[in-house]
Amino acid sequence: AATKLASAEKLMYFCTDQLGLEQDFEQKQMPDGKLPVDGFLLCVDVSRGMNRNFDEQLKFVSNLYNQLAKTKKAVVVVLTKCDEGVERYIRDAHAFALGKKNLQVVETSARSNVNVDLAFSTLVQLVDKSRGKAKIIPYFEALKQQSQQIAAAKDKYEWLVSRIVKGHNEAWPGVCRKMQAAPEFQDYVYLEGTQKAKKLFLQHVQRLKQEHVERRRRTYLALLPQALDALVPDLDEIDHLSRSKVEKLLEAKPDFLKWFVVLDETPWDATSHVDAVDNERIPFDLLDTPAAEQLYEAHLEKLRNERKRAEMRRAFRENLETSPFVTPGKPWEEARSFIMNEDFYLWLDESVYVDIYGKHQKQLIDKAKEDFQELLLEYSELFYELELDAKPSKEKMGVIQEVLGEEQRFKALQKLQAERDALILKHIHFVYHPTKETCPSCGGCVDARAEQLLSSRFLRPPDRHHHHHHHHRNPLAADSVDRINLVILGKDGLARELANEIRALCTNDDKFVIEGKMYELALRPIEGNVRLPVNAFQTPTFQPHGCLCLYNSKESLSYVVESIEKSRESTLGRRDNHLAQLPLTLVLVNKRGGDASGDTVQSLIQQGQQIASKLQCVFLDPAATAGVGYGRNINEKQIGQVLKGLLDAKRNLNLLGTALRDAPDAELRIVMCLMCGDPVGADEVLLPVLQSQGVRPAPVGSSVVA
């Protein structure tokens, strides 16, 4: 209880650990000479002590207090170790203080760092009255505030860590240096210490690593089905193999290492492979995980289903070929109940069967028509005494039908009477005008064959009139007018289907007759992404003259628009930029078997018309498109019209080309070149003009004019 200490040049000690290890701690000398004491902290341990009686302890404290009181210095009672405090001891200590005059009590815990500052500031305030009074807060309330403060500091610190640490391979020393100046780091370390800060950092890094591994795992699992499709697409090869045999089989495949990588250390996610981000291949040991096993089972299931569906298609075709109920022209609705069984419905949508049925019907009808044509040739005497160029009378048609009526080949077409009548009329026309155009054998007609043979043997002498112009390159004039190259654009099979139908209308060697003249027809159906070379409108061997765009839904219409725009973009400014002027025809084709997407025909027509005006192309109205023959989307007449339009466009370009060569001044010739889609020709006119004025155009990949 002394109030004057004399202790010159002694070290100040902060804790007992310093004894004997003075050089390891901060060394501070006590002030020289005398040291006055201004106040006392009277500390009372309120935890449960071993072999210690609290009442005795309180007696000692009471005596000590009496000594201190005599000094008239400020005193504050400090209860320590309140984190392990005994309630009764705390109560008794308070009771003791209450009996004294203004003796304040502060409840502290050094371990939890609660109210320690408060104990000192309370004493300082008693010594120096000019300072503001600190409010004394009971231990549990202070602890709660402290916990909230720590929680808030921890949140802020974790936010800082997540902002600074992005990779799971970062190490503490470097990160610690980066954070040193940040208040979030300093506050948390002040409250909780460096070790806890490091622990939170390690947890964060661990979490990052798990997320990274999960992302890699998802990527690999997404790739696995493709790998299986590529390496083991054949059901027979794997259907009955055990897992280990399948793995051996995969390893033996020539492409195995393209898809998989075999690691020396496994499992992959416990090794450095986790960080080999540029290695896209799937670690082979991943196959032994449940997720991969499920995907393998799904692969098997998929192959089994595909096989089953193929079997169904086959069985259905056999049904069609053997069923007596499937006759030419019989609509699906009538035939369905005779040829469908429950199994078929289980495996494939009805639309698939309708499609197969449609193709089968087409073959049946073609065959029946051919047979009927033979029948008409056999009964030639029926057609002799008709008047020339007159349409046969009703009676005469009646007579013809009566004579043929008993014939099986006549009956075969009874569901297609309109077509049968048309064949009869066509035949009558042939009898009176036997030319190669009206010949029932079409391209097989001897007249046509003879002409072809002759023209391929003898080349005609060049046309003398234009002989001196041949050095002008007009790429469109170079094409023979007798050939038409047509792109057919339509997704999900539309393009292929129409191409097949048009080919069916052609002669045996892909010739198509327009206004009595034969043209060679080359079709290029496109259904995929036109940015890929395999789907390009134009190839080194195929220069399109026109494009037929098909759609039967909103989705297939947007595919058309995208494709046209993409192909126009891709040729902008190229030397062979004909695609920008490519004549287009947009066609709404029939929708078969109802439509799930619910676009009405009306709305599809409207959309089609809008798009057609946007793309500046012809729009074919489906009302006019109701073709003859089952499932035919566009009839022969309309295909003829489209092709005729293209021919006219070609002829006009050729005429333009001729006019262009003789145009008097350069400007006009350039304009005409561009109208013909011939930027190269335009360049040939422009370059000499530029050079004569001393301008040297930079060599660009595209045409100068463009």
Automatic annotation (TrEMBL):
<keyword id="KW-0677">Repeat</keyword>
<dbReference type="Pfam" id="PF16512">
    <property type="entry name" value="RhoGAP-FF1"/>
</dbReference>
<keyword id="KW-0175">Coiled coil</keyword>
<dbReference type="GO" id="GO:0050770">
    <property type="term" value="P:regulation of axonogenesis"/>
</dbReference>
<dbReference type="Pfam" id="PF19518">
    <property type="entry name" value="RhoGAP_pG1_pG2"/>
</dbReference>
<keyword id="KW-0343">GTPase activation</keyword>
<dbReference type="InterPro" id="IPR036517">
    <property type="entry name" value="FF_domain_sf"/>
</dbReference>
<dbReference type="InterPro" id="IPR039007">
    <property type="entry name" value="pG1"/>
</dbReference>
<feature type="domain" description="FF">
    <location>
        <begin position="248"/>
        <end position="302"/>
    </location>
</feature>
<dbReference type="GO" id="GO:0007266">
    <property type="term" value="P:Rho protein signal transduction"/>
</dbReference>
<dbReference type="InterPro" id="IPR039006">
    <property type="entry name" value="RhoGAP_pG2"/>
</dbReference>
<dbReference type="InterPro" id="IPR057284">
    <property type="entry name" value="FF_RHG35_4th"/>
</dbReference>
<feature type="domain" description="PG2 pseudoGTPase">
    <location>
        <begin position="669"/>
        <end position="706"/>
    </location>
</feature>
<dbReference type="GO" id="GO:0005096">
    <property type="term" value="F:GTPase activator activity"/>
</dbReference>
<keyword id="KW-0966">Cell projection</keyword>
<feature type="coiled-coil region">
    <location>
        <begin position="293"/>
        <end position="320"/>
    </location>
</feature>
<dbReference type="InterPro" id="IPR051978">
    <property type="entry name" value="Rho-GAP_domain"/>
</dbReference>
<keyword id="KW-0963">Cytoplasm</keyword>
<feature type="domain" description="FF">
    <location>
        <begin position="309"/>
        <end position="371"/>
    </location>
</feature>
<dbReference type="GO" id="GO:0012505">
    <property type="term" value="C:endomembrane system"/>
</dbReference>
<dbReference type="InterPro" id="IPR027417">
    <property type="entry name" value="P-loop_NTPase"/>
</dbReference>
<dbReference type="GO" id="GO:0008361">
    <property type="term" value="P:regulation of cell size"/>
</dbReference>
<dbReference type="InterPro" id="IPR045786">
    <property type="entry name" value="RhoGAP_pG1_pG2"/>
</dbReference>
<dbReference type="GO" id="GO:0003924">
    <property type="term" value="F:GTPase activity"/>
</dbReference>
<protein>
    <submittedName>
        <fullName>RHG35 protein</fullName>
    </submittedName>
</protein>
<dbReference type="Pfam" id="PF23083">
    <property type="entry name" value="FF_RHG35_4th"/>
</dbReference>
<dbReference type="InterPro" id="IPR032835">
    <property type="entry name" value="RhoGAP-FF1"/>
</dbReference>
<dbReference type="GO" id="GO:0005829">
    <property type="term" value="C:cytosol"/>
</dbReference>
<dbReference type="Pfam" id="PF00071">
    <property type="entry name" value="Ras"/>
</dbReference>
<dbReference type="InterPro" id="IPR002713">
    <property type="entry name" value="FF_domain"/>
</dbReference>
<feature type="domain" description="PG1 pseudoGTPase">
    <location>
        <begin position="478"/>
        <end position="655"/>
    </location>
</feature>
<dbReference type="InterPro" id="IPR001806">
    <property type="entry name" value="Small_GTPase"/>
</dbReference>
<dbReference type="GO" id="GO:0005525">
    <property type="term" value="F:GTP binding"/>
</dbReference>
<keyword id="KW-0547">Nucleotide-binding</keyword>
<dbReference type="GO" id="GO:0042995">
    <property type="term" value="C:cell projection"/>
</dbReference>
